[in-house]
Write a structure and sequence with these properties.
By secondary structure, the chain is an alpha+beta fold. The chain has two domains: about 120 residues, no CATH class; about 150 residues, Galactose-binding domain-like (Jelly Rolls, Sandwich), CATH 2.60.120. Helix content is about 35%, strand content about 30%. The protein has three helices and 15 strands. The strands form four sheets. Strands 1, 8, 10, 11, 12 and 14 form a six-stranded antiparallel β-sheet that branches. Strand 2 and strand 3 form a beta hairpin. Helix 1 packs antiparallel against helix 2 and helix 2 runs antiparallel to helix 3. The radius of gyration is 31 Å and the shape is elongated. About 0% of the residues have low confidence.
């Protein structure tokens, strides 16, 4: 009888070891390592990527650490399917508290994710995105052919000059400074290039800095004009609202221009600024890294 009892205990111990080795420990170790790797990746992306990528990585971390919390509960759960009397492979105190610890873990995780977003916001303020050096960068200290557009006798802007007054991360950025009057009597501010010789088959992009004195209702569109049978055909992209005091990219793929497609070579390609609220004021923006292809 004692022999059978000892043998039963040995079998239970072996099952317990197998359970820990092949079920509980892999769940804990693999998800733990994956969560740690994701956290490190997230911190790197915080400094070098777009906010959307950072948010996506943090969602992945949340899922992995949720699995990790489940692994803690699994590790401390009695494997009843194997043997209802088999002891759990961790301390009894932890076994009793495992569900509560799992919930607490998820709450702490949510707090940590919230703190990460706060840090991300601070980093984006302290280390804003800066213009890429592509296309028209105005490093020649000239307007490089860019000019204010005329509509009949009306000049759609006050001044367009080279400037390095706009900064990014403490460094001056070569750009065009464009000033224009907005309001009911003025309409829009438009700057651009003679479209002849410009391919414009794929996209137009630019980096634009809205002066801190501008309202948040200032918006920009990419525009294109082609000669048509009865004058001009006008194409434009959806407006992008500008945030005062920071550089931001403006991307205009060719398939976003409406109405779509142009049959003739472009005669004018440029940027159009207007106020969505109809306010009257003198607007000022800076533009650089204007890329047309």
């Amino acid at each position: 009888m004692w022999h059978n009892l000892d043998e039963r205990k040995l079998i239970k111990e072996e099952i317990r070891k197998l359970y820990k080795m092949f079920i509980a420990r892999p769940v804990l170790s693999l998800t733990g390592l994956a969560a740690l790797a994701s956290a490190v990746t997230s911190l790197v992306l915080l400094f070098v990527s777009q906010p959307q990528v950072f948010i996506l990585v943090n969602i992945i971390i949340l899922l992995l650490l949720g699995i990790l919390a489940f692994g803690v509960i699994l590790y401390c759960r009695e494997p009843s399917k194997i043997d209802p009397q088999l002891e759990a492979p961790c301390f009894p105190e932890l076994k009793k508290k495992a569900p509560r610890l799992g919930i607490l873990f998820l709450v702490l995780l949510a707090v940590i994710i919230g703190l990460l977003y706060a840090v991300a916001a601070l980093v984006k303020v302290a280390f804003p995105e800066c213009p890429e050096q592509v296309g028209y960068t105005f490093s020649t200290m000239s307007t490089e052919g860019w000019q204010i557009r005329y509509e009949g006798d009306q000049r759609l802007g006050e001044s367009l000059v080279y400037s390095n007054q706009a900064h990014c991360r403490g460094k001056a950025v070569d750009s065009l400074e464009f000033q224009f009057q907005l309001g009911q009597d003025y309409g829009t501010g438009q700057m651009g290039l003679d479209g002849k010789g410009q391919p414009m088959t794929a996209e137009m992009s630019a980096w634009v800095f809205s002066d801190s004195e501008n309202p948040r209702s200032l918006a920009v569109q990419c525009v294109l004009m082609e000669s048509a049978e009865r004058g001009w055909a006008w194409h434009e992209t959806p407006p992008v609202e500008l945030t005062p005091g920071r550089w931001q990219p403006v991307d205009c793929p060719a398939n976003e221009f409406t109405p779509g497609g142009w049959l003739n070579p472009p005669q004018f390609i440029g940027l159009l600024f207007y106020d969505t609220s109809g306010q009257f004021y003198l607007g000022k923006v800076y533009a650089t890294s204007i890329y047309i292809r």
